[in-house]
Amino acid sequence: RIFKRQMQCRFDIDRLNAPFLAIYDSLIPTEEEKAKQNQLFTLLETLITKEWPEAQLYVYGSCGNSFGVSKSDIDLCLAIDVADDNKSEILLRLADILQSDNLQNVQALTRARVPIVKLMDPVTGISCDICINNVLAVINTKLLRDYANIDARLRQLAFIVKHWAKSRGVNETYQGTLSSYAYVLMCIHFLQQRRPAVLPCLQEMQSTYSVTVENIECAFFDQVDKLRDFGSNNREPIAKLVWAFFNYWAYGHDYANSVISVRTGSILSKREKDWTRRIGNDRHLICIEDPFEISHDLGRVVDKYSIKVLREEFERAAEIMQYDANPCVKLFEPY
Ligand code: 3AT
Ligand code: MG
């Protein structure tokens, strides 16, 4: 099954461009929604600065990385000088402050893997999670956003892949499938590997942005305005890319030996990463290297059952793209 021949693209693929772009357009948050998100951010920033003048509030995740669909929750990170042991105290205090300001459903989850405060703003209807000092997530959010600004096709592809994953129930890390973050990295890597390439590898270029967080040097080229023409030699429109993306993950990827790496813009081997065997709960059945925490495999949530589900879904999607009369409907049918 692994090395089934990759398929030739159907001859009428271009007629699918308009429907895919229509789906993409329908998923983009409106300006009004963006304004509401900003309004809530400003409110929270004001409340927080009043209590902790030195602290900084950052947006991360889909509201900051430009891969957020309409009605997304906001992920926020409070950067504050505090020992890990005292995070709970801050979260509980924060919850008090938010509650007094009439924010709703305020909950401090101090025992979660990533401790957070949750809240809902009754004015805008937006829900929000606030964590503490998750600075790497703020930086990887910037990396994703910078990639999105190079070529419009990344955002189109990632929205469609995320929409597919959510519709098909394969965007649930607690059930052993992949996070949205992992899917976006898969899209970036795929576009780096296209020939001609649609995206460059920002971390291999001369760095114009560099910060060190938790002893990890995060450096990359971030003057992406200068790269607006980068993908112009590749004229593949969205339908062809969606087709090729699913074809790659269904029939082209070598699950036994390969690691995809946005950091290097290439495929690495599991052997060189020492990801060849299960260690603890890390099984490395599909390997996606985090761009900064390079010992971190975003596929580590995948187990021997969910890998089967995932690969069958990639194959289903590839078959639909190849043969179905109406892929833009069938692809997103609820599972
Ligand atoms: P949704 O639109 O909410 O589905 P998202 O972009 O907010 O997508 P996630 O909910 O998967 O993505 O994650 C929120 C952010 O947290 C994205 C990324 O900056 C960070 N993040 C998530 N998982 C990891 C991880 N395993 N390692 C490092 N950063 C991560
Ligand atoms: Mg999110």
UniProtKB/TrEMBL annotation:
Q: Where in the cell is it found?
A: Cytoplasm
Superkingdom of origin organism:
Eukaryota
Query: Which positions fall inside the Poly(A) RNA polymerase mitochondrial-like central palm domain?
Result: 21-148
Q: Where is the PAP-associated domain?
A: 238-296
Family the entry assigns: Belongs to the DNA polymerase type-B-like family.
Write down what this protein is called.
Answer: RNA uridylyltransferase
Write down the species. Prunus avium (Cherry)
Covered part of the full sequence, start to end and full length, is: 390 to 724 of 728
